[in-house]
Amino acid sequence: MEGDPTLQLRVFDLNCWAIRYLSKRRQERVRLIGDMLRQEGFDLVLLQEVWSERDYSDLKAKLGGCYPFSHYFRSGVIGSGLCVFSRFPILDTLLYQYSLNGYPYMLQHGDWFCGKSVGLVVIKISGIVFNVYVTHLHAEYCREKDAYLPHRLVQAWELAQFIRHTSKAADVVLLGGDLNMHPEDVGIRLLRGWTGLRDAFAEATRFEGCEDGCTLIPNNCFTVKTELLPFPLGIRIDYILYKAVSSFTVKCKELKTTTGTAPGMDIPFSDHEAVMATLHIQRQGQAADSNLGTAEPMLADVVTEARTEVGVGLRAAQRQRYSTGRMAVLALLLLLLQAAAALGTLAGLAAGQPFPKLSFSLLAFFAIGILLLATGLHLFHTIEVKMLQGTEEQLRMALRALQEHP
């Protein structure tokens, strides 16, 4: 109702870079993060890359009095790494795992094993229903030759669709996470345009932190400097996005980022800088406009661009499927030739010819290994093709709807 006092919500988002046993000074950084969260007393804490449930349990024990409510999202082989800490009761949760998550054979990257996902928690504060989403999209690794762009676009589209279809009963929508996309990238424009989410950095009345809001900066001792050579100031890939769905307004009064080392320490909390937003939520007389395209007037062009990139990925996946299928067929033919040769050799044993058991066994094991590997990869790329085809078709329908009803 009009005249209601403004609700202030302080939100904290951080990619913790907490890969168990591998990341540098992990336990020390987990302790520093816990100490800082206790001291600052945020209302909501959204974390990514908390791969170890032990780390989550340690944080939960440390923060128990300040954040009595929390949830850890489990998915993939090593876990989604997503968790939420809240000062307010969590009413419901939901996890959606993206259909494409990179490649299982790219062991040095490992995104596939995480089961990249988006987690949703529903909370109610002073009668206002909040849908709070936390996510971590596939990393870029190489901007010049971004082999994962189609997968990340599929994830951005599924994230937008997930938010759109699950937030209809909410009053306010919040999204925080490491989106692994620059603000001008097509995936961000697609996500914001399709959902109407607003960028806290762009909307903030007051900002304090790294220049341009960058969250991956060169002077962070954990950052891989070669990845930032084209970007002397760093890049902004961690976001807090928001939107009022019903008769409320949301304004970002203040946005901050950390700027390097933790206070009094020689190390930062993570290889990413944290993002901290102070949001003011107030009821208004009329319902807020929640139509598509409120944040992106040229949404049809964005959808077309995204569809083109997904099409490029689809053709690459089809080539991979063909190559692995051909490899499997060749391995099968090799096995058949071996079987025929073995039968011929066995038939000639009566003539006193020796049977080369070792050679045949090694060749058979080699052919079987190639056959299993190629078959597995063929099945994987077949699934990849189907997922890309499905997303391309959804984008085509979305584009048609936008063109028919601008």
Automatic annotation (TrEMBL):
A GO CC term assigned to this protein in UniProt: membrane
Gene3D superfamilies given in the database record: Endonuclease/exonuclease/phosphatase
GO process terms (BP): sphingolipid metabolic process
Cell compartments where the protein resides: Membrane
Gene Ontology molecular-function annotations: metal ion binding; sphingomyelin phosphodiesterase activity
Enzyme kind, highest EC tier: hydrolase
Main location: membrane
Domain of life: Eukaryota
Entry similarity comment: Belongs to the neutral sphingomyelinase family.
Protein name (database record): Sphingomyelin phosphodiesterase 2
Organism for this UniProt entry: Spheniscus mendiculus (Galapagos penguin)
